[in-house]
Amino acid sequence: MSLWNISDRRSVATNSNANKNAATAPRSTDQLADPNLTDPNLCINGTCVYERHLPGNVSIMANVQRLQHGHYSSPALVTGDFDNVDFLALNFVFHAPRALRHRFRAATIRASVTNREALCAFPRPERLREAPRFLMHAPHLIYGAVSPDNLQWTFNMAGSMGVSQLPISASFVPSRTMKESYRRYEMLRIQGSVRTLHSPWGSQFDVEAGEIVWSLEENNVQRSGLPREFTFVMLVHKPRADSDIVLTLDIKPEIQAWIGRFPQFWLNRSAYQPVCQKSVDFKRPVGQRFEPSRSVRGFNFAALSSSFEDYVSMPGSTYSSSKVSSNLPVSSNTDTNDG
User: Low complexity: which segments have biased composition (predicted)?
Assistant: First the structure.
């Protein structure tokens, strides 16, 4: 404010006009808030697709938080456009009520999509070739806050040598002490990759990008376990709009107790198997809409204002590998050729 008081009238008038022009000028895309980012007030409890109870009264749940239809279209893609694309957000809850006694050290989450025809006893080969696949997924790589750890040790070496012949004796005792220190850094690690889904009906029916595998590892220094709740997102490409597809979740945790880690064969007992394991109904939208969506094809997910990684929900301080949003040209969500 003092800068305005010491300026003359011409300077004030110039600055005033500049402020008016700046106020009327349209803001850039980066300055505008993305209305399609997940609004916490719109995160209702969706359908539970996975529920499992484990030793120590710990549980794992997965719910559908968001499911919206659309397409993926950009003139920069040499592969062409993708119709019948669904945005799916799954909310995972790793509930450990007594974290000092039981905690999740690590976990592996596998998500796969397949045509329901592949689950039949006698599938039709032409339907097996019409398989869904994952177009995108997030996160790819996430690190937690860095925790330094100092390792110090001391190594002592001693020996003795002597000659004894009465009445004269001589002895020599060599010794050496070495001190070393090492500084290491630990952090929470989450990594996701896409895999080929192998078909039981032969390699000719294998589906590329038919499976996503996420690995989660705790911070070994803090030993605070995995995040209690987080949301992962993915784009699923369906062969047709009415395709009957099935999403399967498989979660393998590592649980640490005060007596040690539970062996995997103990967690594989029938008492600790999932009590709820449903498939996602891809025909019914769930949760917050994507706007604007004035096209018959639905929202164009290639036109997202934010990076796809920004739709991942993770508590605490995390650092993603994809912080730079793409500047590729995308087509508008208004399709003039749709009727």
Answer: 15-25, 320-333
Residue partners of 283: CB distance under 8 A and separation at least 6: 242
Q: Which is nearest to 298 in space by CA: 127, 69, 131, 128? A: 69
CB 92 within 8 A of CB 230: yes
Measured distance CA(96)–CA(53) in Å, rounded: 10
Q: How far is CA 63 from the centre of its chain?
A: 15
Write out the DSSP string of 284-305. S-BSSPPS---STT-EEGGG-S
Indicate the pairing of strand 161-165 with strand 229-237: unpaired
The two tokens of residue 296 are 């018959």
Give 29-71 pLDDT, tens digit per residue.
433 578 899 999 998 888 999 999 999 889 999 999 999 999 9
Say what the pTM is. Answer: 0.74
pLDDT tens digits, 282-330:
999 999 999 887 778 889 999 998 999 999 998 866 666 655 334 444 4
Q: Which of 115-129, 159-173, 221-235 has the highest mean pLDDT?
A: 221-235
Query: Which tokens sit at 209?
Result: 């990008």
Runs of H (alpha helix) within 76-167: 125-128
Distance of CA 313 to the CA centre of its chain: 8
As a 3-state breakdown, the chain gives helix, strand, coil percent values, each rounded to 5, of 15, 45, 40
Residues making up the chain, counted from first to last: 339
Asked whether the predicted pLDDT for residue 25 surpasses 50, the reply is no
Which of the 8 DSSP states describes residue 265? H
**In contact, 290 and 112? CB cutoff 8 Å:** no
Distance CA 157, CA 234 (A): 58
